[in-house]
Amino acid sequence: MDRIVLSTVVYRSPEEVFPYLESFSRYPRYSEHLESVDQRGDGGAGTEYDLRLSWRKFGYTAHSEVTEIDEPETLSWRLTEDVDARGEWRVEPAPEAAPEGEETASRVYFEAIYDPHSADGDAISLPTFISLDWLVSKIQPRLLGEAKEVVARLVADIEGERREVDLAVHESPQ
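Structure tokens predicted for SRPBCC family protein (174 residues):
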């Protein structure tokens, strides 16, 4: 299993940050490869989401489910089809990280644990002569960069303006 863990500081309280994390409908704003999100459920644990992704000529719908919510601290999720993957958003108070002029701060963590070799080759329509192994080898190195960009755009959405975001990479695939 591979794992990505990133964190950054957001100049808001956990209670102000958490609604952005649990609003999956906002996620296309954060990722250039996420086209749309369809929701089945009330947004709580057990809610399922279909996340329509595209990259170059490849399209894929990730089927996910929120497995646990402990507001305003944790939102856990898992993919329900095609790839063995799970993760969570975590928010911790970090008032000491607030710079002068900001009332408070929180540290936001994004964690994804996945097995890139568990992907179901039948789930993705691949052109002739393109193998799933080739596709995984091209996408995997880009995952960390994509995760970083998602977190930076999330911070801009929460705070209302874009700023230089210091992302700590706690763990990433080799």
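The chain has a mean pLDDT of 87.
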